[in-house]
Amino acid sequence: MKLTQAQLAKYMDHTMLKPEATPEMIDKTIAEARKYNTASVCINPYWVKRVHEGLAGTDINTCTVIGFPLGATSTESKVFETKQAIEDGADEVDMVINIGELKAGNDDAVVADIKAVADATHEKGKLLKVIIENALLTDEEKARASKLTVKGGADFVKTSTGFSTSGAKVEDVKIMREAVGPDFKIKAAGGIHSLQEAYDMIEAGANRLGVSASVQILEEAAKQ
Description:
Aldolase_TIM, EC 4.1.2.4, schiff base
């Protein structure tokens, strides 16, 4: 696989989710995204207004996270957080599922949680990605969570928060792709640090990459 730097950049949600991120770190992330023209900048909800304003005049989306990183907040909290983030300027929201309910086999609860956030997101014409946190799941649970994400009405299923025991794995993306079929979108996130790893995820079926090492990878792409 070989993509131009510009093509690869449009796969990337340029990410700064560190709890210790300062305004200066956020502004640096915005500047990097503008330089390379990534798909989005992904930040915690507190920074949505700043990022939205910093990306004015570009086609780069503002992406934020909901119920992050554990997914164990109430559905009502996730919906409120989503509505507030969109009001502040978010174009895309990445929510974490209720992992405990999934593992307990309470699929209806998982779907209801996703659907409530999907409805709040789509009401404003925005995109929803659903993080299933593969590191904590069996292969059966990964496939089931992916199918429940489709059933809940989301736009993407996403591998990881990047805050658990491991991030995106090629094998997991393949499981997710098989579960959701050829057309539903997948985001691979967490631990993608090289150009080859980015290509591996895309070849496995990822449509978007959540990456904090975007600059390093895109500079590597320019040298191909």
